[in-house]
Fold this protein.
Amino acid sequence: MKFRMTTMNLAVRGAMAMSGLLSAMGSYAAPLDAADVSDMTPEQVIITGEKRVQATDVAPSQISLDAIQPQSIVNQHYIEENALAGSNYADLINLTPSVLSIDPNGAGLMESQSLTIRGFQDGQYNVTFDGIPWGDSNDFTHHSTVYFMPQDMGQIVVDRGPGQASTIGNATFGGTIAISSKEATSNPEGLVYGSYGSWDTGLIGAQYNTGIMKDAGDSKLYVSVKALDSNGFLTESGQSRENLMARYEIPLSGTTSLTLVGMYNHTLQHVPNGSTPEQQALYGYNFGLVNNPESEANRPWNYDQLRTDFEYAGIKSTQGSWTIDNKLYTYAYFHDGFYGMNTGSVTLADTISDGGTTNGPQNVPGVQMHNNYRSVGDILRASDAIGSGKLEVGVWYDYQKDDRFQQDIDWTLGGIPYDGESNGGSIQRQMKNTLTTFQPYIQYAWMATPELTITPGVKYDSFKRDLNAAVNQKTEVPYQGSETWEKALPALDAHYAVSPNLSLYAQYSEGFLAPNLNVFYKTSPDLGSVAPTTTKNYQVGTNMISNAFLFGFDVYHIDSTNIASATACPAGFTGCAVLVPGVKYDGVEFEATYKLNAGFSIYGNVAENNYTTSDGSVLQNTPKKNAALGLIYKDGDIYSALTTKYASSRYSNVDASGNNLYFGGYSITNFDVTYKMSGLKDFGRGNAKVSFKIANLLNKEGDYASLNSNLAGDPLYYVIPSRSYQVSLAVPF
């Protein structure tokens, strides 16, 4: 088991140095009584033995003394105070260490175009909702604007690592973004809210908690409804969303409770693929789409209609000495998309140079598609205190069925199909595929001493893909086949509580990722020779929490094989990738919050994420350095935050010759201020809040990513959204 000794030495020395430093600073804060913690959210109270230690609740990113790997917690307080109207989970975790999020149309106003953790791309890490993994079966990616809105999020935990054997999901080695829903409250309360800002971005919504309903078996209900509408920063690139969320909790007995959750969402969005420098010069810095029926970039001909739902029934029960937690769930994604064939073409002359359609060179070519899937699954977890530790066993099963279709159409003739494909027809793909995932696990948390817990475990990971294609993607000929990939994945971690305020951890774990569906996109694929992605992850770190100080530090090393990396595409295609035989990742991550005097706190993090590839290639959208800095003020009725996120230079996309495109580093500064009108006793319940937010305060501009190319192979660039404003009002009732 090879591990770089320099990395290990750095980790051990850093942990020892911090242990001595923190002891010198003054061991730990006094225990808090019930009154001290009554107004705290669960993540603001860390319980270690008999001690309760208050964390700095204003921190944009918090840590936990119980963590067994690098972890950052974005709590409900930060989400409520700092989220812009349409923010998605990518926006909310962007300040955390080693995270980079690209949002070209404004926060949440188009899907996150590139969200990376330590350089791992979407599809190489998990996203979960209340512990349930979700995403597309074809490549394990996620749709950030069509499920959960910030008004319903209780917290988001970013785990930068594979976790324990009990960590389930399709891509555990890259980490997990764990979104938790708001829980129903014990007391009745309601809230109406709205916001308005730049680009005619408006949000209106309401949420209500029934509190404990004595006449309904002591059950509780939380309901939330909201609507968002915006023109977006990029021209002709608006978005509209309607979202409903409900959570119902009821005790069935003294030892058993039931939770029912449902989310329903509709999104209409017009999404551009970027612009060339020439287009920016001609049509403006924020060029996106146009309003011109002679153009393939015509707004009415480039839109997505997306309907999603997410439901689960969760039962928690104590049966004798066993604790059982089971979630039966389903979620769905229904996507109807309509686009110009080449959204990089703006004028009729561009359309003619693209060749038009077989109906005429001036006819505007386009595509219509659908991608519809539903997953059903179950997660069973059970644990029992055995000997001097806890035995945990469980199993995750998921079955996703996907229907994918795409066809050439002629917009000039009203969107009718035309025969423009190599197979002589109009259909580019017509496919039905399934993914069956099965992951049982077992682990034992052994308390070697009251301070030291060692947890070995193993998970069996099995993926089975089936594809039945009347028209297979790329080959455009029929294909039918299936393949299964499976592996046993060991995990081992140790957690040591140095004191009630300081902990150390070390972790080893193996990761595994099934090949994407695109391995089937060949005339006669040799699936038996297709190797999955595997990793061996090593991490050590330390966490410290006191009333005035939060501190987290870690180092990591990852050996990987067959990592997918972006590469040059044929003209007009996007998202192409090759498998890099081997990549070694090394990194150091640090974050801290310190509470100053007079209500001020300072937050900062720094991460260095290095990698070397076996073939000398570069990994795109992977800055090797990133950092965040924030000054937060909270005192009485006023909350304010001034935060900056920095990302270093990186590569993104390739030019027409296949050369990697270089982008310099950039930083974005945001400002938020909130005033709680507690003195207005007759206005709502006396706790109405008004807030004002400025995104990109210093108005930094420039190209900062290229993820697509036009038909000629010219890169299309996304730019940093210009300075924007938003004002919000929330009134309790």
